């Protein structure tokens, strides 16, 4: 199979779908790899590094899309990319379709078979290809929030760790999954006063054990959300319903009860965001203000640290990518967890959460693959 890797074109996206190390693995499995010139520049991997790994270099993205049997990316295809996809081609990348009807329509019309990193599952009920970027985003959320909290950046002017004689800043984290855990680790490390809100009592018990009393845990109710948000300097939205649009847990009305200059960091923005006032931003202009509250809603947060992110992502995606290259559609038929990543196939939506969010009829993956 010819595996193609184009340069990412989303605003300030520096990650790359295939590192030179991953290219070597595909070559070792007997595949050809075509990488767009400059694709690895953001991680310090020039074209010579890819050539040394065995890849051929394409001058343009158009060449990659035209020739590749499978396209491996990081972020969802942009409008100029999805029109180049075709039936019979595999697309392997993050998609986040539920809040993105335009992209969904583009993929449906193209006839491509699209596998979304964020809905591939594992035996433990986890999302192994989303987890590494959730780890990065969770840790970055506190760095980004602390920066936005500085007065010169529009924030309240609070130091998260405080100093002797002055109370530390307060961080409220909505969601105790991978993002929430990593955000809490960073916030605790900085000396902040940290609360995690979640609707799973077993998960709250786990978090309480992990932090050994260094954080507060609260069961998620409207009252708890209001109390924590109203007292917080930073609120991190870390809610995930796999494949579906994120629920709007913090309403615009609630902003009036928050401290002026407090910061909302919406890590769920890829799935539409969990704050009613959220809209996607970029690393070029990461924040905006609504009712005196600073919003940080960058849709590709890990792109800010591409060296760490690209290698962490490739570590997770490589084994599944090799299955797809080795076996084609049969890999999806043979592996339940990889099949859960199938979102679009030959004009059909094959993920229930996406279909329900956007009003499509859901096609059973086994049925469409068999056809």
UniProtKB/TrEMBL annotation:
Alanine dehydrogenase/pyridine nucleotide transhydrogenase NAD(H)-binding domain sequence ranges: 149-297
InterPro entries per the UniProt record, alphabetical: Ala_DH (IPR008141), Ala_DH/PNT_CS2 (IPR008143), AlaDH/PNT_N (IPR007886), AlaDH/PNT_NAD(H)-bd (IPR007698), NAD(P)-bd_dom_sf (IPR036291)
Cross-referenced CDD domains: L-AlaDH
Reaction catalyzed: L-alanine + NAD(+) + H2O = pyruvate + NH4(+) + NADH + H(+)
Active site residues of this protein: 96, 270
Highest taxon above the source species: Bacteria
Binding site for NAD(+): 134, 198, 203, 220, 239-240, 267-270, 298-301
Positions of substrate binding: 15, 75
GO cellular component terms attached to this protein's record: plasma membrane
Enzyme nomenclature, EC number: 1.4.1.1
Family label: Belongs to the AlaDH/PNT family.
Annotated protein name in UniProt: Alanine dehydrogenase
Organism expressing this protein natively: Nitratireductor arenosus
